[in-house]
Amino acid sequence: MLGKLGLPEILVIAAIALLIFGPGRLSELGKGLGEGIRNFRSSLKEGEQPAEKK
Length: 54
Description:
Blueprint: H1 7-48
C-alpha cells in the first residue's frame, strides 16, 4: 500500500541516507532539523499569546 512506511522501509531509507551523507554530515542534518522544529514550535507559541496593548 502506498503511503505506509514500515520498519524495513525506514531502515532502508536510513541506510541510503547514511551512505550518501556519511555519519558526520547526517548528524549535522539531524541537529539542524531539530533546531528548525524547535524554532517553529516556539514561534507558534508566541503567535498564540495575545499581543500586549500599549
